[in-house]
Amino acid sequence: MNTLFKIRKIYFIFLVSLSAALLASCNFSEKKEFTWNPEVKELTGGDLEEWLHKASFENELKSDNPDEYMITNANVVFPFIGSYNNDVGKLYEDFASEKSNGSIFKNKTVLYKDPKWGDLFLNSVLLYESQEVYLKEQYTTTGNPVFSGLDAIHDSYSAHLAETSVFTNDYPKIKTGIYVVSIQNKDYLLGFYQKENLVFEIAIGYTQENLPAVLNKLKSVSDELGLNIKEWERATLKDLKALATKNTFWKDPYVGLYPDRYMLNIVELKLKDTPFHSVKNPKRGEYVYEYQSAQGTVSLATFLKKATKSSTEFNTDKEGFKEYKNGSHRLFYKEEKDGKFIRGQAVSYAKDSNYLELHFSFPEENKEAQAIIHEILKTIKIRSF
C-alpha cells in the first residue's frame, strides 16, 4: 500500500525542455483574464501558496533548490487530491485554454510528512468564475511509472468518500463539509470548503484513538486560515459517523449512446437534468428523446452514420452551419423556421470514420426549450478515438 510520499527531482534543464514543448503545443493568445473577488483576495492575501502555509504543520515536502522540479506520488496516496467537478464534469487547469468546462486559474497543493499527523495535504484552487463545485463519491488513479516502472500503469488505486452529518450548502456564500475517506487500509478526514470561486480541502489520516485530536486539528486549521467555519467548530465525534447517503456528491448528468465493442459510449448527451424522456421503438432516429411543452412537442433524434471524408475535410465543408466548440471537439448546426416550430440539424465527426447527426425541433415561442436544446449541443461528448 502507498502510504509514504516519494520525491524525484529533475534538474532545471529538463524542465526547460518540457516547458518549451508545452508552449509550442498551447495557444495562450486566448487565455482568459482573471479578476479577483475582493473577499477572496482579502482572505487569501492574493497568494494561495502563502495562505496555505499559515496552517501549522511540520516537515513540508518540497525542494529547496529552485533549479529542480519535484515529482511525488501524492496522486497515488490521495487519488482525489485537487480534483473537483462542476455540474457537467471535471474541472481542468487552464494551461491551453482548450477546456471549456469551467477552467481553473490556479491550483496549489502543499504536502507534509508531519511527525505527528503523518502524510497530509492542503489544496486550494481559484476558478475563473464562481460556480458550484462537487466532490465525487469515488476516485481512481493508476500507478506512477516514475516510481514503480512501466508496469505501474496497470496498478489501480481508489479512494471512497462517505458523507457525514457535517455539511451545509449556502453557495456562493459557503459550501462546506467533512467527509470520511477510505484509501486502501487507511482512513482520512477530508475537510471541504468553497466560497465564491475559492475552493479549499485538507486531508489528515486518523485512527479511532486519535480521531478527537484530528477533528480539533481541522478546527484549528480553519481558524489559522481565517475561514472560521462554524460547521467544523460545532462538529462532534458523533457527527463524523460515515453515512450511507449520497446527497452531496456529483451526479453524472450524461446519458451514454452507441457503445463500441469495448462497451465505451461513443456519444454522451447531457440529458439527465432535462425534461426529455426516451421514446421506445422510435419511428425516426436510432435514439429519440422528447417531451411535451405548453406550445408543443420538443424532440431530439440521433443517427450515427459512416463518413466519406476525413475529419479535416468534414470540418471544413460546413457552409451555412454555425459552430459550437467544446475543447478540441467541434459540432456544426443549422436551424430554420417551419411554421410555429424551429427545426434543426447538427453534425459532428466521431471515431472510426463515423459522424453523428442530430435532428431537433422545438416551438419557436418556447425559449426554455431552445435553451435546453442548445445546452445539449454545447456540452455533447463524442469520442474521436
Automatic annotation (TrEMBL):
The entry's keywords: Signal
Signal peptide: 1-24
Family annotation (PROSITE patterns): PROKAR_LIPOPROTEIN (PS51257)
Origin: domain of life: Bacteria
Keyword Signal in record: yes
Protein's recorded name: Uncharacterized protein
The organism of origin for this protein: Zunongwangia pacifica
Lineage, opening ranks: Bacteria, Pseudomonadati, Bacteroidota, Flavobacteriia, Flavobacteriales
